[in-house]
Amino acid sequence: MSMLEDVKVALQVATQTYDSELSGYIESAKVDIQAAGITNIDESDAGIHQIIILFCKYRFELIHGNAELAQAVKEVYDEQKAQLGMRTGYTDFGEDSDGNI
User: I want to staple 62 with a disulfide (CB 3.0 to 4.6 A). Which of 49, 51, 54, 70 is the partner?
Assistant: First the structure.
């Protein structure tokens, strides 16, 4: 399945009505996690895949659903984003002054 299809399943959306909106959320999620320092954005990676779905769920619920649920999902999203940002393989920590990674 594509990322869009997976997001739609997670949101229980069966029509194409929101496809453009959800595609925008997917791209916004990538920008947001890059801004947090996550440099390896591979949609096939389970952690990245899940965090994109959470971002989309948050945005969709905020606009079309339940604001309380949106806030709860955002808290989970922020926590997972922070955890991925501290893991090797997701973030380029660079080199220190001695050239060590």
Answer: 70
